User: What shape does this take?
Amino acid sequence: ETGVTQTPRHLVMGMTNKKSLKCEQHLGHNAMYWYKQSAKKPLELMFVYSLEERVENNSVPSRFSPECPNSSHLFLHLHTLQPEDSALYLCASSQSNGPGLNTEAFFGQGTRLTVV
Amino acid sequence: AQSVTQLDSQVPVFEEAPVELRCNYSSSVSVYLFWYVQYPNQGLQLLLKYLSGSTLVKGINGFEAEFNKSQTSFHLRKPSVHISDTAEYFCAVTKTNTGNQFYFGTGTSLTVIP
Assistant: This one.
């Protein structure tokens, strides 16, 4: 039990499909993240929700749309994806209490996404 | 901006031999430093972290790392590796004044050879 749960673990979708990835954290944290992990590349930070603010990586295409209804839940809505979007999508959470008072990020097990 | 460099993409090492995985970072502000391990088809698990105080940090599974501010390095070491240490290892940093964005290196694949 990692404290951060992602569903589904595996997803295969067509380029015209719409799907959503779900993440739930049971740690009482106030910040949640989506990362994309592709082979041979650094983990790419896609979105951050921290203290109810949203921070996004401007290079992330609009076909990825995050939603954070509360501090425990995070979604990533997917539509009209491309094959190059196939990757492991990792959710993480952390506690941000202000300058100098932050914890490490805790990760879920990821969703392996394949776009066909 | 922060960046993390892991110079070694693959490190093969014999069982019970020592290993060092290198990490260098660049940042215009002070940072916290982390090492994570990732086993196949799993998320990232924290090995150890440096926040402040002693520059030698001990973590789980017998790993340790040393923060060297002058060399902007945070190398990970283990005196004797086991087969079960075969995994991907990631170095990461976050700014101390905000801490809500973690920057990762490209990872080092450690393979322990029997």
